[in-house]
């Protein structure tokens, strides 16, 4: 089933897209409101569409099998836990459909960025470094990959000439997803050729912050400039 979407459309000609995945138990509209509250406005651009999808309602093992809006199931929230390949593969179908719809609208893969918060950031890492390495960039906030992740296997066998640039943020006081897990994920991805930056956030729990969103807003602009700027730079 295709997840429900909340979209902030480009205010001008749409030439790039960002897909922002929420954390476990949340929804796309909630993340949009969270971003809006912290920035005092929407994450909005003249040429970039921002998509906030909502995960399907499904049984979630860390909540004793209760239904929750989660992208995938997992045995526990722990870097040492095993991934559920069956659950991940179902999730990949939804993500691929989202991306394919943007491509069908004329947006090339290298003009699409994926990212997310917590579980959504983990999904973005799977998307950019396992499913679609041709994407324009990946961001992950307060996120991690399991140590035996299929993402690492995929990168080890990758023949991609270039991988999407990575922007990671993590609260130093995060008790739900310790910063060490995020740092370890980043360092492991670097070993497999991923280039990017890891930003520890002082006095920050498991949460988005105005400072990280402001940084992210500029990074997205730099990675997905207006097409007329690219033409001028080549002249």
UniProtKB/TrEMBL annotation:
Pfam families: Abhydrolase_2. One of its GO terms (molecular function) is palmitoyl-(protein) hydrolase activity. One of its GO terms (cellular component) is cytoplasm. Keywords: Hydrolase. Residues 7-221 form the Phospholipase/carboxylesterase/thioesterase domain. InterPro entries: AB_hydrolase_fold, LYPA1-2/EST-like, PLipase/COase/thioEstase. It is an enzyme of class 3 (hydrolase). Its EC number is 3.1.2.22. Belongs to the AB hydrolase superfamily. AB hydrolase 2 family. This is palmitoyl-protein hydrolase. It comes from Drosophila ananassae. The lineage of its organism: Eukaryota, Metazoa, Ecdysozoa, Arthropoda, Hexapoda.
